[in-house]
């Protein structure tokens, strides 16, 4: 979720959109499903989408709950964005952080991890098969966040 940019642009939701969201929420709350908030840098969106697709192909009971933030961390809308993100994090059972060289520099990703921990959520960091970044930020290491490769993530959830 983090990043230096945000998503959604100013579009307005229609009644059909709201019904679709309601149905997704009902499915996410179905027994056995895990609602996962995934925190990532906007620059990693393509990788994260591939990982989401892989999870679906492996018949995991995971429902990813995130939005790509394309607003600067210190923008005029930042407080509103933080409020909406906090709601999404609070609804999740676990936060997964996708670690890359970009995400470890993202103020949004750092905030999402710290907010998740503040809300008592389990936080797990993951990375692609290429490995975790060489430098792990203190907001991951000092909080004892476990780091696992993506293909081992479901074992931790």
SSE string? HEHEHEHEHEH
From the spread of the alpha carbons, the general shape counts as globular
Unreliable runs, pLDDT <50, ≥5 residues?
3-11
User: What fraction, in percent, of the residue positions are helical?
Assistant: 25-40%
Question: What's the CATH topology label?
Answer: Rossmann fold
Q: Major β-sheet, in short? A: 5 strands, parallel
Distance between the termini: 19 Å
CATH architectural designation: 3-Layer(aba) Sandwich
- Rg over alpha carbons: 15 Å
Topology:
Blueprint: H1 15-28, E1 34-39, H2 45-57, E2 62-65, H3 78-91, E3 94-98, H4 107-118, E4 122-127, H5 138-141, E5 146-149, H6 153-156
Parallel strand pairs: 1-2, 1-3, 3-4, 4-5
Summarize the structure.
The protein contains six helices and five strands, in the order αβαβαβαβαβα. By secondary structure, it is of the alpha/beta class.
Can you describe this structure?
This protein has 157 residues and is an alpha/beta fold. The protein has one domain (15-156): Rossmann fold (3-Layer(aba) Sandwich). It is built from 6 helices and 5 strands. It has helices at residues 15-28, 45-57, 78-91, 107-118, 138-141, 153-156; strands at 34-39, 62-65, 94-98, 122-127, 146-149. The protein has a 5-stranded parallel sheet with strand order 2-1-3-4-5, with helices on both faces. The radius of gyration is 15 Å and the shape is globular. The model is unreliable at 3-11 (pLDDT under 50).
Core attributes:
157 residues; alpha/beta; 5 strands; 39% helix; globular
């Amino acid at each position: 979720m983090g990043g230096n940019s945000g998503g959604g642009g100013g579009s307005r939701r229609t009644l059909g959109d709201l019904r679709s969201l309601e149905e997704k929420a009902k499915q996410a709350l179905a027994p056995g499903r895990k609602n996962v908030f995934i925190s990532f840098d906007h620059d990693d969106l393509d990788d994260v989408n591939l990982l989401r697709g892989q999870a679906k192909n492996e018949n995991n009971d995971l429902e990813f709950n995130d939005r790509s933030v394309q607003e600067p961390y210190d923008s005029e809308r930042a407080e509103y964005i933080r409020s909406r993100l906090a709601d999404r994090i609070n609804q999740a059972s676990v936060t997964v952080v996708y670690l890359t060289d970009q995400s470890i520099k993202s103020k949004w990703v750092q905030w999402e991890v710290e907010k998740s921990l503040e809300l008592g959520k389990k936080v797990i960091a993951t990375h692609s098969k290429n490995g975790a970044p060489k430098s792990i930020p203190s907001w991951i290491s000092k909080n004892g966040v476990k780091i696992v490769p993506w293909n081992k993530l479901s074992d931790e959830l």
